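In the design runs reported in the main text, the only information available to the sequence generator was the tokenized backbone. The following block is the verbatim input for one such run; it is reproduced so that readers can re-run the procedure and compare outputs position by position.
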């Protein structure tokens, strides 16, 4: 399914910034021609948590890295309010990661496909691309 709008999960943002081959050439082309590429604010939180836990190392402070990534790729940060966070907690337990559940709720609320390598997103009826 081709879309003109996409929501990146945290891994997809990292892959995009790194120029990783984890994103297919097709997806890279679709992102290059997308009208909008969205990101969740929970992605900034998840990256900061990973850095704090020593699971990820960045060349910059996580907040600065995230800001530069958003600016460099022309991403739009979608608002994530309390009602979506509550909905994310009420989703069926196909996925246990709270950050991914918030991204799933955001995708469902906005009718957006998610760029992710995580096959569990599809269990919620979310269209995924990678």
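Verbatim output:
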């Amino acid at each position: 399914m081709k879309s003109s709008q996409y929501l990146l999960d945290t891994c997809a943002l990292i892959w995009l910034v790194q120029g990783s081959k984890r994103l297919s050439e097709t997806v890279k082309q679709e992102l290059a021609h997308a009208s909008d590429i969205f990101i969740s604010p929970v992605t900034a939180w998840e990256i900061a948590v990973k850095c704090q836990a020593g699971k990820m190392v960045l060349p910059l402070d996580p907040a600065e890295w995230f800001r530069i990534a958003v600016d460099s790729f022309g991403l739009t940060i979608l608002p994530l309010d309390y009602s979506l966070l509550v909905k994310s907690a009420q989703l069926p337990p196909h996925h246990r990661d709270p950050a991914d559940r918030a991204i799933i709720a955001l995708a469902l609320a906005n009718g957006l496909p998610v760029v992710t390598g995580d096959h569990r997103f599809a269990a919620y009826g979310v269209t995924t691309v990678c």
